[in-house]
Amino acid sequence: MTMRSSKMVKAPYELVKSPNHNGSLKLDGMSVIEFSFYTQGRKGAFFLQDHLLLFIKSGVYTVRFGDQQYTMRSNEMMFIHKSIGVEYEKAGEPDSDYILDYMMFFLNEKIVEEFLKFAGLKPIYPVNDVVPVTVFPINARIGSYIESLKPYFENPDEVKDGLVRVKLMELLFHLADSNDRLLHQMMQPMSKDRGSIAMIMEENFLNPVSLNDLAYLSGRSLATFKRDFQAIYNTPPLKWVRNRRLDKAKELLAATALSVTDVCYSTGFENIAHFSKVFKERFGLPPSEFRNKMS
């Protein structure tokens, strides 16, 4: 994956602040979001706090995770597992006036557990069976379901939570019928390897992760994660993350032409003033002066 030069936002909650946000249906926060663009290209990055189901009615949507790239076109959908950071690029098709029409569903563990109980299903926990991204076609039933939601976006604030919950249950029924492995994916963390703290930290220190996110990724409770981390690194996790980000920022300032602002966002900091302050505390100079000295 190439280094991003824009801020990675947390999804779904920060996405609704986007100036390009069209409309959403809400349930206990943000559960269902619809975006629709007339564009030939747009790039960005987000860190998923909930599972994401992404449906493309028309257009092209490309996601990069690690060194893998996944592309969806019209009438395809993608499942992206929670607690990972991805880069995306989206565009319309030339033969459809560059219209990009898609719908995003954010599904947290609570709604999946409600569905399993409601449907009388028991979760299955396969070993080594969790994949970060899956692309598959939209069948006729799911396509009809997507179309049935469009009227609700005309007056989204009038749609009650109970109805949104019912529609999410309906979506999960359709998914269970067409691809029951997705339900198993949703119920498991990305990593169950209890020796994987070092790998988890290296893969995620640039993402806007919380301690709860890191504990989840490592398959530990928060208390156990903190204890195990301290035993390995002899420092608190947040301090380690900050120092690792600063080391990366120093490397980028010395070796690339990225602006100080781009370096700030690329290394997981969300506030330029704070970034400059902690950079100076660690290296003795603010970022701009450090770069001038290096050049």
Task: Outline the structure in words.
The longest helix has 19 residues, at 237-255. The protein has two domains: 9-186, Jelly Rolls, CATH 2.60.120; 197-294, Arc Repressor Mutant, subunit A (Orthogonal Bundle). It is globular. Helix 2 (140-149) packs antiparallel against helix 3 (161-178). By secondary structure, the chain is an alpha+beta fold. The model is unreliable at 1-5 (pLDDT under 50). 40% of the residues lie in helices and 22% in strands. Residues 195-293 form the HTH araC/xylS-type domain.
| Residue share in β-strands | 15-25%
Whole-number tally of structural domains: 2
Helix count?
11
CATH topology group of the largest domain: Jelly Rolls
Spatial order of the strands in the main sheet? 2-3-10-5-8-11
The level of helicity is 40-55%
CATH class of the largest domain: Mainly Beta
CA distance, first residue to last residue: 27 Å
Radius of gyration: 21 Å
Estimated structural class: alpha+beta
Unreliable stretches: 1-5
Oligomeric state, counting identical vs distinct chains: single chain
User: How many strand units?
Assistant: 11
Biggest sheet details: 6 strands, antiparallel
Question: What would you call the shape?
Answer: globular
- Report the average pLDDT across residues: 83
